[in-house]
């Protein structure tokens, strides 16, 4: 019987050889296992051959043996015969089980209390290919170092890493979370020091969450804005590019402290910190003393932002946020007079102005359908091109649906429409960065090239011109070959009511087109 058992074990290992990957290392390992089993079979055969002789010498001839009828291998009873084990074999099995249990206990202890307990590292890479009609350019965007933020080269084409450590288990366990985006995140394009300089920082966000009660959590660090329905991560977006409100209307990131509070269907977030994008309080030069050393002023007024969300049902969430504070304006020193000027057009009366922003958004998600909507309104004192009050307001609508096709499998389709009005006093304010001519020729904001030319022909500087009203529509197809892979294809058309898009031949137009595709691998 023991012989049959060992032979069955040997035979049972052969399918594993057939299914294994035929690499040399695996073949050698399997051959070694087979040799070991063959050796054990020989030893057992020798033991079986010697035991009957010893039994006859001690107890006399054995009783006649009644042979069991052979079992057909096609019978359902095949392989169900009882196996007998010696005491030594049972002891060896117990020792092996005890060793395995010790290893499992050690791994569970390390998972709960060891240095890797509660640690997770996730992220994605998303190489992207973009064709830009106005620039007459087409190229892959991935790990490209750029210190400018445009709607056709923002938070995509990068590596995203999310490193989170939870200290303990349960809802009262504190946690620390850091996200890194070496090329396109907040650090490399937006985070500024006290003098407004961007320092090529790979840090994107860094947050510590400390639960105080079952409903209240203390928050500290570098956080993203509370505004809008869009997220930064490419693998969570339903479009390839971001909308106009996300890119140019909603506030950016903050450094400070805050609290999150939940009760029933309501959730609130509060945060007090520096003005947006500043890792240090802003310092602006206001002049020089008698020795030529700079006289500076610091923005000592913090920014306060808050958000509330109401879960109307399992499918519908309605939320809103606001931000209020004082924002620092760009400044320069007039080379002719030595005087300090403020604002993009040099016409602002002071180094900063009051900033106010509010928005409301909703998300409806049911099965394979998702709808999003958002309305924005913002103002910033002295931040417009002509030194007056900047004002902007906009709307974003998104619709998405997933479906299956026989050949292509799981897919999705998304359409998004955005409009952002930024015409008052020549435009500017918020996330809209104009140059000294009152234009953002890459993103289509500011005064039109024809109005600026006519103004300069009459001895002006374009301060009487109005800013642009911007719109876009994007159409996306999404493919989901596996759980880790997502492929997006987007066509996007942008247009404005002013000549604000710079073309590759040096002329200006009122529209632009993008065609892009993106490969996302999440891990």
From TrEMBL:
The keyword Coiled coil applies. The keyword Coiled coil applies. It holds the Pfam family DUF3138. Residues 20-47 form a coiled coil. Keywords: Coiled coil, Signal. It comes from the Bacteria. Residues 1-20 form the signal peptide. InterPro entries: DUF3138. This is DUF3138 family protein. It comes from Paraburkholderia podalyriae. The lineage of its organism: Bacteria, Pseudomonadati, Pseudomonadota, Betaproteobacteria, Burkholderiales.
């Amino acid at each position: 019987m023991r012989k049959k058992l060992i032979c069955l074990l040997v035979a049972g290992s052969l399918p594993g050889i057939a299914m294994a990957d035929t690499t040399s290392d695996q073949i050698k390992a399997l051959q070694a296992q087979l040799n070991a089993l063959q050796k054990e079979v020989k030893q057992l055969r020798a033991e079986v051959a010697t035991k009957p002789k010893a039994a006859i010498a001690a107890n006399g001839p054995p009783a006649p043996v009644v042979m069991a009828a052979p079992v057909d291998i096609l019978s359902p009873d095949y392989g169900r015969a009882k196996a007998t084990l010696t005491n030594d074999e049972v002891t060896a099995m117990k020792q092996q089980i005890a060793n395995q249990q010790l290893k499992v206990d050690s791994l569970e202890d390390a998972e709960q209390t060891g240095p890797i307990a509660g640690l997770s590292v996730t992220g994605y890479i998303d190489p992207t290919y973009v064709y830009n009609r106005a620039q007459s350019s087409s190229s892959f965007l991935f790990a490209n170092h750029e210190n400018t933020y445009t709607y056709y080269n923002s938070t995509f084409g990068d590596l995203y890493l999310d490193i989170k450590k939870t200290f303990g288990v349960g809802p009262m366990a504190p946690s620390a979370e850091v996200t890194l985006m070496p090329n396109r995140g907040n650090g490399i394009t937006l985070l500024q020091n006290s003098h407004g300089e961007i320092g090529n920082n790979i840090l994107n966000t860094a947050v510590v969450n400390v639960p105080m009660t079952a409903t209240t959590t203390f928050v500290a660090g570098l956080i993203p804005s509370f505004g809008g329905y869009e997220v930064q991560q490419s693998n969570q977006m339903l479009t390839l590019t971001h909308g106009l409100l996300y890119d140019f209307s909603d506030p950016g990131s903050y450094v400070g402290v805050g609290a999150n509070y939940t009760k029933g269907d309501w959730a609130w977030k509060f945060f007090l910190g520096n003005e947006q994008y500043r890792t240090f309080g802003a310092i602006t030069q206001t002049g020089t003393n008698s020795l030529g050393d700079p006289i500076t002023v610091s923005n000592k007024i913090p920014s306060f932002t808050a958000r509330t969300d109401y879960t109307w049902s399992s499918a519908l969430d309605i939320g809103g946020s606001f931000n209020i504070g004082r924002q620092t304006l760009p400044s320069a020193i007039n080379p002719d007079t030595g005087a300090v000027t403020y604002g993009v057009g040099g016409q602002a009366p002071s180094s900063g102005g009051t900033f106010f922003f509010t928005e409301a958004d909703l998300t409806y998600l049911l099965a394979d359908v998702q709808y999003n909507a958002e309305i924005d309104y913002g103002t910033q004192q002295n931040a417009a091109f002509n030194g007056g009050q900047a004002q902007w307001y906009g709307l974003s609508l998104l619709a998405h649906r997933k479906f299956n096709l026989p050949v292509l499998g799981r897919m999705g389709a998304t359409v998004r429409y955005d409009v952002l009005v930024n015409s008052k006093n020549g435009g500017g304010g918020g996330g809209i960065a104009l140059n000294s001519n009152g234009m953002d020729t890459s993103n289509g904001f500011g005064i039109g090239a024809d109005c600026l030319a006519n103004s300069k022909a009459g001895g002006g500087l374009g301060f009487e011109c109005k800013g642009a009203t911007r719109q876009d529509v994007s159409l996306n197809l999404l493919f989901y070959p596996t759980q880790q892979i997502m492929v997006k294809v987007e066509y996007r058309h942008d247009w404005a009511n002013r000549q604000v898009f710079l073309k590759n031949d040096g002329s200006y137009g009122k529209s632009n087109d993008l065609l892009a595709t993106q490969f996302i691998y999440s891990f």
